[in-house]
Design goal:
Rossmann fold; 5 strands; 2 domains; 8 helices; binds BIS(adenosine)-5'-pentaphosphate
Length: about 190
């Protein structure tokens, strides 16, 4: 299974990616998690990315692509992956197509998780209380939602035009949303 999960901040990509990883037995690759690990480790890349992430902006395409490429070369990704948080703009979508073509691992399907903006804000506010993620502050969240609408929403249209997109309703229990995603994947085969 080679799956791209799309959706606004707080739509449940990370939550569902973990479940899909267990279901399909392929790794969950989150560019946000890779970047947060680099920040926590204090690597040069992490130091560069931190301020950009805290403000809710996108880290440069080059940095994220090289991190992703390195991760996809790990042997555990040979049989597929659940990709979460990439691509975030049209340039990244083209770069991903080229990378997967080089690796001879074309993606199977992109699944968009739809959640209304009020609920996104509510979910992120709930997580902020529990986890204190730096980019979950109200200002950063507002900016992340703006970046999503401006730069990432066109990626959804890109996959739709290629006939590779499935959309699911992301409102409901985590189990309900997982069942919808699995049904969407099955329908895409
Ligand atoms: P990233 O880590 O990708 O964050 P995001 O896309 O903003 O997504 P979130 O992690 O906020 O939400 P999610 O959709 O995963 O939802 P979750 O499952 O956590 O990116 C962070 C930053 O890194 C970016 O802003 C950027 O700076 C940088 N970055 C990352 N990738 C990049 C790239 N490709 N290019 C450039 N920069 C990049 O759920 C949210 C909450 O809701 C949780 O508390 C969860 O428990 C709850 N929840 C989930 N589902 C349900 C449900 N069904 N019912 C009730 N609660 C639910």
């Amino acid at each position: 299974m080679r799956l791209v999960l799309l959706g606004a901040p707080g739509s449940g990509k990370g939550t569902q990616a973990t479940r899909l990883r267990d279901h399909f037995k392929v790794p969950h690759i989150s560019t946000g998690d890779l970047l947060r690990a680099a920040v926590a480790a204090g690597t040069p890349l992490g130091l560069k990315a931190k301020a950009v992430m805290d403000a809710g902006c996108l880290v440069s395409d080059d940095i994220v692509l090289s991190m992703l490429e390195e991760r996809l070369h790990h042997p555990d990704a040979d049989n597929g992956f659940i990709l979460d948080g990439y691509p975030r703009n049209l340039a990244q979508a083209s770069a991903l197509d080229a990378l997967l073509a080089r690796l001879e691992q074309p993606m199977d399907v992109a699944v968009q998780i739809d959640v209304n903006p009020e609920l996104l804000v509510e979910r992120i506010a709930g997580r902020a209380k529990l986890e204190g993620r730096a980019d979950d502050s109200p200002d950063a969240v507002r900016h992340r939602l703006h970046v999503y609408a401006d730069q990432t929403a066109p990626v959804v249209d890109y996959y739709r035009e290629l006939g590779r997109l499935r959309c699911v309703d992301g409102v409901g229990s985590m189990d309900e949303v997982l069942a919808r995603i699995l049904a969407a994947i099955a329908a895409a085969k």
